[in-house]
Write a structure and sequence with these properties.
Helices cover 38% and strands 15% of the residues. By secondary structure, it is an alpha/beta fold. An 8-stranded mixed sheet has the order 1-4-3-2-5-6-8-7, with helices on both faces. The protein is globular and about 45 Å long. 44% of the residues are buried.
Length: 273
């Protein structure tokens, strides 16, 4: 199976997107990369990240998020899943990029999606370390699921009639309420075959008043850049996958991060030993 190095979705996003080439402004993907201890970032991103780190335990949040994504990837593979769709893949940071070695195994097909062309360009370069001809990198906006699901990248790489692991970690909190993230996730969920797995992690509202004040201050910082954050309650996030079979993930939760995973019941694939 042969694919182009980088693709775009069939339809242009329906929402305005930031000017990613403005390196003088902080960028959410590069800030997350800094928090993960990698180098796909600029001095501006690092300065912004340091301001956020005064308010939130960013390194712990990143650590928990990566551990959750890693566990879900291996859980799905152990249950026979051989197709992965990664929404909002972010920069190929060191901890996250270790997934690529796993996804480069023979027989595994993967599509990485991000709407930041700098991110997808970085992925194109980085995946040369772990080449997989059955993978694709797609520059597209996850808020347009129909464009992504019908894109050449997805249709030529994934068989949506067979189970898929959908990873949407640390990305849906970038989708504001007015764009209806629950409906967006439901569109992806409905497109997946029985036996599929879904995993989401999301910034959440903490229980302690002091933590709540710290989070509010951090969210105010993000309102000053083109990619603000929206924290949501654990109940709201659980409701997004409430009609599926839950997979316990509480051990990855923290005061500011909630992880939810579920299995779409039905005909499953054969488990792998």
């Amino acid at each position: 199976m042969s694919h182009s190095t980088n693709a775009t979705a069939n339809d242009a996003p329906r929402w305005p997107t930031p000017d990613f080439l403005r390196f003088e402004d902080p960028n959410a993907a590069r800030i997350a990369d800094w928090a993960a201890g990698d180098s796909h970032n600029t001095a501006v991103d690092r300065h912004f990240g340091e301001q956020v780190a005064l308010l939130l335990p960013v390194e712990e949040i990143v650590r928990r998020n990566v551990a959750f994504a890693t566990e879900m990837l291996h859980h799905a593979l152990a249950h026979g899943i051989r197709q992965v769709l990664v929404l909002g893949c972010g920069m190929p940071t060191g901890p996250v990029w270790r997934h690529q070695a796993t996804l480069a195994r023979p027989g595994i097909r993967a599509v990485y999606v991000d709407y930041d062309p700098i991110v997808t360009a970085a992925y194109t370069i980085a995946r040369q370390q772990h080449p997989n001809p059955a993978s694709e990198i797609l520059t597209a906006d996850l808020r347009d699921p129909d464009a992504i699901l019908t894109s050449t990248a997805v249709r030529s790489t994934l068989d949506l009639a067979q189970p898929v692991l959908l990873l949407a970690t640390a990305v849906l909190h970038h989708v504001p309420d007015r764009h209806k993230p629950a409906d967006i996730l439901a569109r992806y969920r409905d497109a997946l075959a029985p036996g599929s797995y879904l995993a989401i992690s999301h910034l959440t509202t903490p229980d302690k008043p002091e933590d709540h004040r710290r989070l509010s201050a951090a969210l105010n910082l993000y309102r000053g850049i083109d990619q603000p954050l929206t924290a949501r309650s654990r109940r709201t996030l659980n409701d997004w996958l409430a009609d599926l079979d839950p997979i316990p993930t509480d051990h990855h939760d923290g005061p500011f991060l909630h992880c939810v995973a579920a299995h779409k019941s039905g005909t499953d694939v054969q488990e792998q030993t």
